[in-house]
Amino acid sequence: MGKHFSFIHCADLHLGEPFRDIHMSGSGPWNERIGQATFKSFEKIVDAALDNRVDAILISGDVYNSDHHSLAAQMAFARELYRAAQEGIQVFIVHGNHDPGEAWRADIPLPKSVHIFPSGHVSSCPLIRDGENVAVVYGTSYKTRHVSENLAKEFKKNENGLFSIGMLHTDAGQSSGGYAPCSVDDLKSAGMDYWALGHVHTRTTLSTDPYIVYPGNIQGLNPKETGPRGCWLVDVGAYGTVTMKFIETDTIRWLDMSVDITGLGQTEELIRLIEKQRAGLKEQTGRPNIIRLIIEGSGVLHRVISSEDGKDYILQQLNDREQHRYLFAWFTDLLDHTKAGININERRELPDVTGNYLKAYERLRQRDESSLKKELRRIVETRPELVKNGKLQAMITDELLMDSFNKAELLGAEMLSEEEEHNENH
Question: ω before 210 within 30° of 0 (cis)?
Answer without folding.
Answer: yes
